[in-house]
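Structure tokens please, single chain.
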Amino acid sequence: MRIIITEKFSVTHVLAKVAGDFYPDEEIFFIEALPYWLNNFKFPKGMALSEYPYYGRPLYKRDQPWGGLRRRLSKLIDRKAVLINPISLDEAAAFMLKADDIICACDWDHAGIWGFNLFMEQTLGANRAPAYPVLALRGGQDTKSLCAAFNTMIDTNHPDFKALLSAGRVKRLFEFSYAINSQAILGNLYRRLAGTNEPVFVSKYALQALIWLAEHPPTLCYKLEELMASKWQGTGKYPKDSMNHLLGMGSAASRQHLLGNLIQLGLINQSETHMLSITPLGTAFVGALHPDCRDFDLPFRLDAWMNMGVEAAEPAIKRYLKTFFGKQLRFDRDKILTTR
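Here you go.
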């Protein structure tokens, strides 16, 4: 029995058309792991403000992040992936222990490879094999490309796999501590200005988009999304084509989400014609930020760290976050004292 781990049904669907040709006498199952490995950080609780800026290595919850999404188990029947049932982590682990082989067929990028690795950690853990075969989906999803991928499989010890896994780990190393500091330091600033006690998270790219809007006239939503993607230039310090892992600020889905979050928080406004503009609350928020919170080079900086590997990148990430949030914490504290 072989189990192929994919991210989502669209990949399972196309692989089902050809997988049987390579394993004609075997049972083949698919597990779609995507809903599990979306960032589901386990944050420390009960921290005092004196403990910030914080830096730590990421921890993850071992539960379902979004109630509506389910990890799915399917079986290959007549070149189709036929759904058997949703499957929990423990059920997946028990089923995977029966397999003769487990194949990674997650997207060939830092997110997909990191996600496969986390999924294996949270299911098999100490029962993991030393290595697993990898279907490196570098090309398209047409039959010719998929067959080529099956014919040139690598394993999880391959340098290319390790490089993508390392890049994914570096990104989460940054995002984990950024999120913890943002919820406390930027969250406190927002709560004071907005007059609310609700928990607030301003993401790394949402903050830069907000600062950008504060410096520019109202902009059509799709234009800003375009800018944040392929047209983001930063300050010009980094060549635009220097990025290996990232493409501008966020993904297509995350850009819509982060702009929607800024609208929901009342920091920006979207008109009936989809024009985005900063609100008085947004202006006050940006005005209360330390000038060095403006970092339009952040996606380039993060991509460069992802190329370095965890050991080399971690000191730079720690220094950046401690400096970034340390400056904001002191700046905010000084402003409060001068207004009393």
